[in-house]
Automatic annotation (TrEMBL):
Chief site of localization: cytoplasm
A biological-process GO annotation: cell division
Pfam families, A to Z: Septin
Compartments, record wording: Cytoplasm
InterPro entries linked: G_SEPTIN_dom, P-loop_NTPase, Septin
GO molecular function: GTP binding
Protein name: Septin
Protein backbone atom coordinates (compact mmCIF):
# COMPACT_ATOMS: atom_id res chain seq x y z
CA UNK A 1 0.00 0.00 0.00
CA UNK A 2 2.64 2.62 0.98
CA UNK A 3 4.67 1.65 -2.09
CA UNK A 4 1.65 2.21 -4.35
CA UNK A 5 0.90 5.57 -2.77
CA UNK A 6 4.53 6.64 -3.28
CA UNK A 7 4.45 5.73 -6.94
CA UNK A 8 1.10 7.58 -7.38
CA UNK A 9 2.58 10.64 -5.84
CA UNK A 10 5.61 10.47 -8.11
CA UNK A 11 3.33 10.13 -11.11
CA UNK A 12 1.39 13.21 -10.03
CA UNK A 13 4.58 15.16 -9.49
CA UNK A 14 5.77 14.09 -12.95
CA UNK A 15 2.54 15.25 -14.50
CA UNK A 16 2.75 18.55 -12.68
CA UNK A 17 6.32 19.08 -13.90
CA UNK A 18 5.23 18.28 -17.44
CA UNK A 19 2.31 20.67 -17.17
CA UNK A 20 4.47 23.50 -15.87
CA UNK A 21 6.98 22.81 -18.61
CA UNK A 22 4.25 23.19 -21.21
CA UNK A 23 3.14 26.46 -19.61
CA UNK A 24 6.70 27.74 -19.48
CA UNK A 25 7.37 26.75 -23.07
CA UNK A 26 4.17 28.43 -24.27
CA UNK A 27 5.16 31.54 -22.34
CA UNK A 28 8.64 31.48 -23.83
CA UNK A 29 7.41 31.11 -27.37
CA UNK A 30 4.96 33.99 -26.84
CA UNK A 31 7.82 36.11 -25.56
CA UNK A 32 9.83 35.13 -28.61
CA UNK A 33 6.91 36.15 -30.86
CA UNK A 34 6.56 39.48 -29.06
CA UNK A 35 10.26 40.13 -29.43
CA UNK A 36 10.06 39.29 -33.11
CA UNK A 37 7.22 41.78 -33.46
CA UNK A 38 9.21 44.42 -31.63
CA UNK A 39 12.25 43.78 -33.84
CA UNK A 40 10.06 44.09 -36.89
CA UNK A 41 8.90 47.50 -35.70
CA UNK A 42 12.50 48.80 -35.68
CA UNK A 43 13.84 49.75 -39.05
CA UNK A 44 17.36 49.70 -37.66
CA UNK A 45 18.51 53.26 -38.08
CA UNK A 46 19.03 53.54 -34.36
CA UNK A 47 22.43 51.97 -34.99
CA UNK A 48 23.38 54.70 -37.48
CA UNK A 49 25.41 56.82 -35.04
CA UNK A 50 27.38 53.69 -34.18
CA UNK A 51 27.98 52.94 -37.82
CA UNK A 52 29.07 56.48 -38.61
CA UNK A 53 31.27 56.47 -35.56
CA UNK A 54 32.85 53.13 -36.46
CA UNK A 55 33.49 54.21 -40.02
CA UNK A 56 35.01 57.54 -38.98
CA UNK A 57 37.19 55.88 -36.38
CA UNK A 58 38.40 53.34 -38.93
CA UNK A 59 39.26 56.05 -41.41
CA UNK A 60 40.81 58.26 -38.76
CA UNK A 61 40.79 62.03 -38.71
CA UNK A 62 43.01 64.43 -40.58
CA UNK A 63 43.86 67.80 -39.15
CA UNK A 64 46.42 70.36 -40.27
CA UNK A 65 47.50 73.53 -38.66
CA UNK A 66 50.26 76.01 -39.33
CA UNK A 67 52.25 78.35 -37.17
CA UNK A 68 52.97 81.85 -38.43
CA UNK A 69 54.81 84.76 -36.89
CA UNK A 70 58.06 86.64 -36.64
CA UNK A 71 61.31 84.76 -36.27
CA UNK A 72 62.26 83.79 -32.73
CA UNK A 73 58.82 83.99 -31.12
CA UNK A 74 58.91 80.32 -30.10
CA UNK A 75 56.90 78.71 -32.91
CA UNK A 76 58.98 75.54 -33.18
CA UNK A 77 59.21 75.24 -29.43
CA UNK A 78 55.44 75.45 -29.05
CA UNK A 79 54.88 72.74 -31.66
CA UNK A 80 57.18 70.49 -29.69
CA UNK A 81 55.40 71.34 -26.50
CA UNK A 82 52.03 70.65 -28.09
CA UNK A 83 52.59 67.19 -29.48
CA UNK A 84 56.08 65.83 -29.78
CA UNK A 85 56.29 65.03 -26.19
CA UNK A 86 57.11 61.95 -24.23
CA UNK A 87 54.93 63.07 -21.36
CA UNK A 88 51.68 61.62 -22.65
CA UNK A 89 52.04 58.15 -21.25
CA UNK A 90 48.55 56.93 -22.16
CA UNK A 91 48.80 58.17 -25.68
CA UNK A 92 50.38 56.12 -28.41
CA UNK A 93 52.55 57.56 -31.13
CA UNK A 94 52.60 54.65 -33.60
CA UNK A 95 54.74 56.54 -36.07
CA UNK A 96 56.28 59.26 -34.12
CA UNK A 97 56.92 61.51 -37.06
CA UNK A 98 55.71 59.87 -40.22
CA UNK A 99 57.70 61.89 -42.66
CA UNK A 100 58.48 65.32 -43.81
CA UNK A 101 55.90 64.98 -46.51
CA UNK A 102 56.58 68.41 -47.86
CA UNK A 103 59.71 70.26 -47.23
CA UNK A 104 60.77 73.22 -49.21
CA UNK A 105 63.43 75.68 -48.27
CA UNK A 106 60.81 77.75 -46.55
CA UNK A 107 58.06 75.52 -45.34
CA UNK A 108 58.30 72.34 -43.38
CA UNK A 109 55.40 70.00 -42.86
CA UNK A 110 55.65 67.36 -40.19
CA UNK A 111 53.10 64.64 -39.85
CA UNK A 112 52.42 62.56 -36.86
CA UNK A 113 49.75 60.15 -35.91
CA UNK A 114 48.30 60.15 -32.44
CA UNK A 115 46.04 57.48 -31.15
CA UNK A 116 43.88 57.65 -28.08
CA UNK A 117 41.36 54.98 -27.10
CA UNK A 118 41.50 53.55 -30.61
CA UNK A 119 40.81 56.88 -32.31
CA UNK A 120 43.49 57.96 -34.73
CA UNK A 121 44.25 61.54 -35.66
CA UNK A 122 46.73 62.29 -38.40
CA UNK A 123 48.15 65.67 -37.57
CA UNK A 124 50.08 67.81 -39.98
CA UNK A 125 52.01 70.67 -38.49
CA UNK A 126 53.27 73.27 -40.90
CA UNK A 127 56.18 75.34 -39.66
CA UNK A 128 56.56 78.48 -41.73
CA UNK A 129 59.60 80.70 -42.07
CA UNK A 130 59.56 83.49 -39.56
CA UNK A 131 59.35 86.89 -41.12
CA UNK A 132 60.55 90.18 -39.92
CA UNK A 133 59.70 93.72 -40.77
CA UNK A 134 63.33 94.55 -41.24
CA UNK A 135 63.73 91.87 -43.88
CA UNK A 136 62.45 91.98 -47.39
CA UNK A 137 58.70 91.86 -46.69
CA UNK A 138 57.17 90.20 -49.71
CA UNK A 139 59.71 87.41 -49.92
CA UNK A 140 58.91 86.24 -46.44
CA UNK A 141 55.11 86.11 -46.60
CA UNK A 142 54.51 84.90 -50.14
CA UNK A 143 55.52 81.25 -49.54
CA UNK A 144 53.03 81.05 -46.66
CA UNK A 145 50.12 82.28 -48.79
CA UNK A 146 51.21 80.07 -51.68
CA UNK A 147 51.28 77.05 -49.39
CA UNK A 148 47.69 77.57 -48.21
CA UNK A 149 46.50 78.13 -51.79
CA UNK A 150 48.35 75.07 -53.04
CA UNK A 151 46.53 72.83 -50.56
CA UNK A 152 43.16 74.22 -51.75
CA UNK A 153 44.21 73.71 -55.34
CA UNK A 154 45.24 70.11 -54.68
CA UNK A 155 41.95 69.42 -52.98
CA UNK A 156 40.04 71.06 -55.83
CA UNK A 157 41.85 68.93 -58.40
CA UNK A 158 41.26 65.76 -56.39
CA UNK A 159 37.61 66.63 -55.94
CA UNK A 160 37.08 67.20 -59.64
CA UNK A 161 38.93 63.99 -60.48
CA UNK A 162 37.63 60.49 -61.03
CA UNK A 163 38.61 58.92 -57.74
CA UNK A 164 36.90 61.17 -55.21
CA UNK A 165 36.58 58.62 -52.45
CA UNK A 166 39.93 58.75 -50.74
CA UNK A 167 40.90 62.37 -51.06
CA UNK A 168 43.77 63.32 -48.81
CA UNK A 169 42.81 66.51 -47.07
CA UNK A 170 45.90 68.61 -46.55
CA UNK A 171 44.00 71.91 -46.40
CA UNK A 172 45.20 74.10 -43.54
CA UNK A 173 42.45 74.01 -40.94
CA UNK A 174 43.93 76.51 -38.57
CA UNK A 175 46.69 79.09 -38.32
CA UNK A 176 48.27 79.82 -34.96
CA UNK A 177 49.41 83.40 -35.32
CA UNK A 178 52.22 84.42 -32.93
CA UNK A 179 52.22 87.97 -31.61
CA UNK A 180 55.31 89.41 -29.96
CA UNK A 181 55.07 90.03 -26.22
CA UNK A 182 57.62 92.82 -26.49
CA UNK A 183 55.71 95.31 -28.64
CA UNK A 184 52.60 97.30 -27.86
CA UNK A 185 50.18 95.12 -29.74
CA UNK A 186 50.02 94.18 -33.41
CA UNK A 187 52.75 95.52 -35.64
CA UNK A 188 51.94 96.74 -39.16
CA UNK A 189 53.42 93.50 -40.53
CA UNK A 190 51.00 91.47 -38.35
CA UNK A 191 47.98 93.42 -39.59
CA UNK A 192 49.18 93.00 -43.17
CA UNK A 193 49.83 89.30 -42.75
CA UNK A 194 46.55 88.54 -40.98
CA UNK A 195 44.66 90.34 -43.73
CA UNK A 196 46.43 88.23 -46.31
CA UNK A 197 45.39 85.11 -44.44
CA UNK A 198 41.97 85.73 -42.93
CA UNK A 199 39.87 84.72 -45.93
CA UNK A 200 41.89 81.59 -46.44
CA UNK A 201 42.33 80.09 -43.02
CA UNK A 202 41.02 80.15 -39.44
CA UNK A 203 43.35 82.46 -37.53
CA UNK A 204 43.86 81.89 -33.81
CA UNK A 205 45.98 84.68 -32.35
CA UNK A 206 48.51 83.84 -29.63
CA UNK A 207 50.62 86.01 -27.36
CA UNK A 208 54.04 84.38 -27.63
CA UNK A 209 56.44 83.87 -24.69
CA UNK A 210 53.86 85.12 -22.25
CA UNK A 211 56.13 84.22 -19.32
CA UNK A 212 57.93 87.49 -20.06
CA UNK A 213 54.85 89.50 -19.04
CA UNK A 214 53.27 90.22 -15.67
CA UNK A 215 49.57 89.28 -15.40
CA UNK A 216 48.64 92.96 -15.71
CA UNK A 217 50.80 93.50 -18.79
CA UNK A 218 49.42 90.32 -20.31
CA UNK A 219 45.81 91.33 -19.89
CA UNK A 220 46.59 94.83 -21.20
CA UNK A 221 48.25 93.37 -24.31
CA UNK A 222 45.37 90.96 -24.87
CA UNK A 223 42.85 93.82 -24.82
CA UNK A 224 44.98 95.94 -27.09
CA UNK A 225 45.34 93.13 -29.64
CA UNK A 226 41.59 92.46 -29.68
CA UNK A 227 40.91 96.17 -30.19
CA UNK A 228 43.32 96.29 -33.11
CA UNK A 229 41.79 93.18 -34.65
CA UNK A 230 38.40 94.86 -34.59
CA UNK A 231 39.66 98.24 -35.82
CA UNK A 232 41.39 96.61 -38.77
CA UNK A 233 38.43 94.37 -39.62
CA UNK A 234 40.47 91.23 -39.28
CA UNK A 235 38.37 88.07 -39.22
CA UNK A 236 39.93 85.77 -36.72
CA UNK A 237 38.32 82.38 -36.01
CA UNK A 238 34.93 82.96 -34.39
CA UNK A 239 34.18 80.43 -31.72
CA UNK A 240 30.71 79.00 -32.25
CA UNK A 241 27.90 79.94 -29.89
CA UNK A 242 27.39 77.47 -27.10
CA UNK A 243 24.07 75.56 -27.33
CA UNK A 244 21.60 76.79 -24.74
CA UNK A 245 20.83 73.25 -23.56
CA UNK A 246 24.45 72.53 -22.57
CA UNK A 247 25.11 72.10 -18.87
CA UNK A 248 26.37 74.98 -16.76
CA UNK A 249 29.88 73.56 -16.40
CA UNK A 250 30.29 73.35 -20.16
CA UNK A 251 28.94 76.89 -20.61
CA UNK A 252 31.39 78.18 -18.03
CA UNK A 253 34.30 76.45 -19.82
CA UNK A 254 33.15 77.95 -23.09
CA UNK A 255 33.02 81.45 -21.59
CA UNK A 256 36.51 81.07 -20.13
CA UNK A 257 37.85 79.85 -23.46
CA UNK A 258 36.39 82.77 -25.39
CA UNK A 259 37.54 85.37 -22.90
CA UNK A 260 41.11 84.02 -23.04
CA UNK A 261 41.64 84.96 -26.71
CA UNK A 262 44.34 85.75 -27.75
CA UNK A 263 45.75 82.79 -25.84
CA UNK A 264 48.90 83.68 -23.92
CA UNK A 265 51.25 80.74 -24.38
CA UNK A 266 54.56 79.49 -23.11
CA UNK A 267 56.59 76.79 -24.82
CA UNK A 268 59.51 74.74 -23.60
CA UNK A 269 61.62 71.84 -24.70
CA UNK A 270 62.80 71.14 -21.19
CA UNK A 271 61.33 68.80 -18.64
CA UNK A 272 61.66 70.00 -15.07
CA UNK A 273 60.61 68.53 -11.77
CA UNK A 274 57.90 70.21 -9.70
CA UNK A 275 56.90 68.56 -6.41
CA UNK A 276 58.27 65.22 -7.60
CA UNK A 277 56.37 65.38 -10.90
CA UNK A 278 58.03 65.76 -14.28
CA UNK A 279 56.53 68.65 -16.23
CA UNK A 280 57.39 70.78 -19.21
CA UNK A 281 58.56 74.14 -17.99
CA UNK A 282 61.00 77.01 -18.03
CA UNK A 283 63.28 77.31 -15.05
CA UNK A 284 64.21 80.76 -13.79
CA UNK A 285 66.25 81.84 -10.79
CA UNK A 286 63.06 82.83 -9.06
CA UNK A 287 61.00 79.78 -9.93
CA UNK A 288 59.48 77.62 -12.61
CA UNK A 289 56.92 78.49 -15.28
CA UNK A 290 54.91 75.38 -16.05
CA UNK A 291 53.66 75.10 -19.61
CA UNK A 292 50.68 72.96 -18.66
CA UNK A 293 49.64 74.86 -15.56
CA UNK A 294 46.47 76.87 -16.31
CA UNK A 295 47.46 79.36 -13.63
CA UNK A 296 50.66 80.11 -15.57
CA UNK A 297 49.42 80.37 -19.16
CA UNK A 298 46.68 79.39 -21.65
CA UNK A 299 48.58 76.49 -23.22
CA UNK A 300 46.16 73.83 -21.97
CA UNK A 301 43.16 75.82 -23.23
CA UNK A 302 44.76 76.03 -26.66
CA UNK A 303 45.59 72.34 -26.84
CA UNK A 304 42.18 71.35 -25.59
CA UNK A 305 40.32 73.44 -28.13
CA UNK A 306 42.51 72.28 -31.00
CA UNK A 307 42.38 68.63 -30.20
CA UNK A 308 39.27 67.87 -28.27
CA UNK A 309 36.62 70.55 -28.52
CA UNK A 310 36.91 72.60 -31.72
CA UNK A 311 38.77 70.43 -34.22
CA UNK A 312 35.61 69.52 -36.11
CA UNK A 313 34.35 73.11 -36.20
CA UNK A 314 37.71 74.33 -37.53
CA UNK A 315 37.47 71.69 -40.25
CA UNK A 316 33.86 72.60 -41.07
CA UNK A 317 34.63 76.31 -41.38
CA UNK A 318 37.63 75.51 -43.57
CA UNK A 319 35.49 73.42 -45.83
CA UNK A 320 32.27 75.46 -45.84
CA UNK A 321 33.71 78.95 -45.92
CA UNK A 322 37.40 79.21 -46.77
CA UNK A 323 37.41 76.47 -49.36
CA UNK A 324 34.14 77.71 -50.86
CA UNK A 325 35.67 81.19 -51.10
CA UNK A 326 38.62 79.65 -52.91
CA UNK A 327 36.31 77.75 -55.29
CA UNK A 328 34.27 80.87 -55.99
CA UNK A 329 37.43 82.86 -56.77
CA UNK A 330 38.75 80.03 -58.89
CA UNK A 331 35.49 79.85 -60.84
CA UNK A 332 35.36 83.61 -61.31
CA UNK A 333 38.91 83.46 -62.67
CA UNK A 334 37.96 80.66 -65.07
CA UNK A 335 34.93 82.64 -66.16
CA UNK A 336 37.06 85.68 -66.93
CA UNK A 337 39.32 83.52 -69.03
CA UNK A 338 36.38 82.00 -70.93
CA UNK A 339 34.98 85.45 -71.58
CA UNK A 340 38.35 86.59 -72.96
CA UNK A 341 38.48 83.53 -75.20
CA UNK A 342 34.96 84.23 -76.40
CA UNK A 343 35.86 87.79 -77.31
CA UNK A 344 38.90 86.57 -79.19
CA UNK A 345 36.75 84.11 -81.17
CA UNK A 346 34.28 86.87 -81.96
CA UNK A 347 37.07 89.08 -83.31
CA UNK A 348 38.40 86.19 -85.40
CA UNK A 349 34.97 85.48 -86.83
CA UNK A 350 34.70 89.08 -87.97
CA UNK A 351 38.11 88.99 -89.59
CA UNK A 352 37.52 85.60 -91.30
CA UNK A 353 33.91 85.51 -92.42
CA UNK A 354 34.66 82.28 -94.37
CA UNK A 355 35.15 80.27 -91.19
CA UNK A 356 32.00 81.73 -89.73
CA UNK A 357 30.10 78.53 -88.97
CA UNK A 358 32.92 76.85 -87.01
CA UNK A 359 33.53 79.95 -85.00
CA UNK A 360 29.84 80.41 -84.27
CA UNK A 361 29.74 76.89 -82.87
CA UNK A 362 32.73 77.59 -80.68
CA UNK A 363 31.20 80.84 -79.46
CA UNK A 364 27.98 79.00 -78.61
CA UNK A 365 30.03 76.44 -76.65
CA UNK A 366 31.79 79.21 -74.77
CA UNK A 367 28.45 80.86 -74.01
CA UNK A 368 27.11 77.63 -72.55
CA UNK A 369 30.30 77.21 -70.50
CA UNK A 370 30.07 80.74 -69.14
CA UNK A 371 26.42 80.30 -68.29
CA UNK A 372 27.16 77.06 -66.40
CA UNK A 373 29.83 78.83 -64.37
CA UNK A 374 27.51 81.75 -63.68
CA UNK A 375 24.89 79.38 -62.34
CA UNK A 376 27.42 77.59 -60.15
CA UNK A 377 28.66 80.89 -58.78
CA UNK A 378 25.14 82.13 -58.05
CA UNK A 379 24.41 78.89 -56.20
CA UNK A 380 27.58 79.18 -54.16
CA UNK A 381 26.89 82.81 -53.35
CA UNK A 382 23.40 81.95 -52.13
CA UNK A 383 24.84 79.19 -49.95
CA UNK A 384 27.48 81.49 -48.50
CA UNK A 385 24.87 84.11 -47.72
CA UNK A 386 22.66 81.71 -45.82
CA UNK A 387 25.58 80.70 -43.62
CA UNK A 388 25.45 83.01 -40.60
CA UNK A 389 29.15 82.58 -39.88
CA UNK A 390 30.37 83.75 -43.26
CA UNK A 391 32.93 86.47 -42.78
CA UNK A 392 32.37 89.66 -44.73
CA UNK A 393 34.48 89.44 -47.84
CA UNK A 394 36.85 92.11 -48.99
CA UNK A 395 40.44 92.59 -48.00
P1 LIG B 1 60.82 80.29 -33.87
O1 LIG B 1 61.85 80.98 -34.67
O2 LIG B 1 59.57 81.12 -33.80
O3 LIG B 1 60.53 78.89 -34.29
O4 LIG B 1 61.35 80.26 -32.34
P2 LIG B 1 62.03 79.06 -31.53
O5 LIG B 1 61.06 78.04 -31.15
O6 LIG B 1 63.23 78.61 -32.28
O7 LIG B 1 62.48 79.82 -30.20
C1 LIG B 1 63.38 80.90 -30.17
C2 LIG B 1 63.95 81.09 -28.76
O8 LIG B 1 62.95 81.46 -27.84
C3 LIG B 1 64.59 79.83 -28.18
O9 LIG B 1 65.75 80.22 -27.47
C4 LIG B 1 63.55 79.31 -27.20
O10 LIG B 1 64.12 78.59 -26.14
C5 LIG B 1 62.91 80.57 -26.73
N1 LIG B 1 61.49 80.35 -26.38
C6 LIG B 1 60.60 79.57 -27.01
N2 LIG B 1 59.40 79.61 -26.40
C7 LIG B 1 59.53 80.46 -25.35
C8 LIG B 1 58.63 80.92 -24.33
O11 LIG B 1 57.45 80.57 -24.27
N3 LIG B 1 59.14 81.80 -23.40
C9 LIG B 1 60.42 82.23 -23.44
N4 LIG B 1 60.81 83.07 -22.50
N5 LIG B 1 61.28 81.83 -24.38
C10 LIG B 1 60.86 80.95 -25.33
Amino acid sequence: EPARSVSRRTDMADRQVKQSNTVINAGLSRLEEDKQCEDDEFIGFATLPDQVHRKAVKRGFEFSFMVVGETGLGKSTLINSLFLTDLYKDRKFPNHILDNAEQTVDIERKQLEIEEKGVKVRLSVVDTPGFSEALNGEKSWQPIIDYVDRQFEQYYQAESGVNRKNIQDSRVHCCLYFISPYGHGLKPIDVFMMKKLHHKVNIIPLIAKSDTLTPKERSHLKNKVMEQIEENHINIYKFPECDSDEDEEFKQQDRELKSAIPFAVVGSNTVVEVAGKKVRGRMYQWGIVEVENPAHCDFVKLRQMLISTHMQDLKDITSDIHYENYRAEHLAEQMKQSTRERMKLKRESMLNPGKMEDTDNLIAQKDAEIQRMQEMLAKMQAQLQTNPRTPVNGT
